[in-house]
Amino acid sequence: MMEELWSLFRELASMKSENLFGAAHIHKVMLVDDSYTARVFIRTCFEMLGFGELEFVEARHGQDALEQLKKIRDVDLVVSDLNMPVMDGFELIRRIRTSPLLHDTRIIIISSASREDQDTELMKLGAAATLKKPISPERLMGALKTLKEDRESI
Amino acid sequence: MSGETNLIEAVTRGVSETLESMFFMTVTDCELVDALPSGKEWCFFMPLESAFSRGVTLKLPEECIHQMADFLFQGQEVDLNEVAADIAGEFLNMICGRMMANLAQSSGEYTLHLVEAGDFDPETQGPYKVLKFETDESRFFLKLLLKQRRG
User: Fold this and answer.
1) Residue A3 and residue A88: Cα distance in Å, rounded?
2) For the residues B39-44, what does the mean pLDDT come to?
3) Are B86 and A111 within 8 A, CB to CB?
4) CA B127 – CA A145 distance, rounded (Å)
5) DSSP assignment of A95-135, as one string?
6) Is B97 in contact with A114 (Cβ distance < 8 A)?
7) How many C-alpha atoms does B138 have within 13 Å on its Cβ side?
8) C-alpha distance from residue B135 to each of A28, B28, B67, B148 (Å)
C-alpha cells in the first residue's frame, strides 16, 4: 500500500516538476548532515519528486563537505544541515562563499531550529533557501523553484 | 495560557508533525503520566537552552525504532542495529526543532545542542512533565525538563 502511494506521489511530482532541474542546471547534489537518517530522508524527498536520476554525494559535517567539494569540483547544489559537529552550516557557507573555487555553489540550508533572524542571517551569508526539519517533498520543491527562478533572472 | 501548557501543546504538535512527515505514522493517543518507564529501553537526551525547558528525553522500545527504520529504509540493505540510534536521535532532534518553532512567538532566544544517546535518564533534578505517545503499533515517552520557576 505504502509503495503504491509513494509511486503515485513520485509520478505526480515528476509531472509537476518537469524540467525543473534542467532549467536550474543541477546534476550533482551534495547532502551534508551528521545524521545518516537525515541524509537518507532528504534523498528520499528528491526521489519522491522524481529526481532519482540526480547524482548524490554525502558528507557528515561542514569540514567533510569542504574537503570533498574541493576534490569533486562539479557539485551544483549543496543541501546542508545547520547544527553539526566539527563545522556547522554557518561556517560551511562562509567558507564556500570565500573560496575562489566554490564561491558560486548554490546552497540550501535545512535546520531543526530555524528562527526568522537566523534565516535572515543565512540568506545574507548566501544561502539560496532555508527549510525547517522535517522537510517534505512539497517544501523541497518550493526551495528548488527558487533556485530555478534565481537562475532564470541571471 | 501558561508557558507550561504552551510547551506541552508545542511538543505534542511537534511529535505529530515529525511522525507524519518522516514516517507516515499517526499519534493515536497522548497523555501526561508520572514518570518514564523503568524498563530497559533506548534513551536519548537533547539539551536545550530556552525560556521554558532545559531539555527533552526520548525513551522508546527497540521495536518502535525498527518500525521507523522499516519505513524509512524500505527496499534498502541497512543494518538496523547500526542505524537505530541515528534514527531515534534525528527523530528527537526534529521534535525539539518543531517544538521550538511552534513556540516561536513566546520562546525568545533558544539553542538546540547535539543529541546525546545512552541508557540513562539525565538531569532528573527539578520540575518535569512526562508525556506518553501511542501510535498504531507502538508507544514512546518524552520527558520535558522544565525551567525552575524563581521565587
Assistant:
1) 35
2) 86
3) no
4) 46
5) HHHT-TTTTT-EEEEEESS--HHHHHHHHHHT-SEEEESSP
6) yes
7) 16
8) 38, 5, 11, 31
Helix axes A36-48, A2-16, angle to 10 degrees: 60
B120 three-state secondary structure: coil
Closest CA to B95 of B4, B27, B5: B27
Residue in B22, B89, B112 closest to A83 by CB? B112
A-B Cβ pairs (cutoff 8 Å, strict): 63
Please give the radius of gyration of chain A, using alpha carbons only, rounded to the nearest integer.
15
Contact B22 A41 (CB under 8 A): yes
**Model confidence over A80-102: pLDDT tens digits?**
999 899 999 999 999 999 999 99
Contact state of A41 with B114 under an 8 Å Cβ cutoff: no
Least confident of A78-92, A127-141, B100-114: B100-114
pTM of the entire predicted model: 0.83
Cα–Cα dist B111/A118, whole Å:
11
**The three grid cell numbers given for residue A89, joined into one nine-digit string:** 552550516
Q: Please report residues of B whose CB lies closer than 8 A to that of A114.
A: 97, 101
Contacts of B71 in chain A (CB under 8 A): 2
Cβ–Cβ of B73/A40 closer than 8 Å? yes
Chain A residues touching residue B73 (CB < 8 angstroms):
40
Q: What is the ipTM of this complex?
A: 0.80
Contact call for B72 and A36, based on CB within 8 A: no
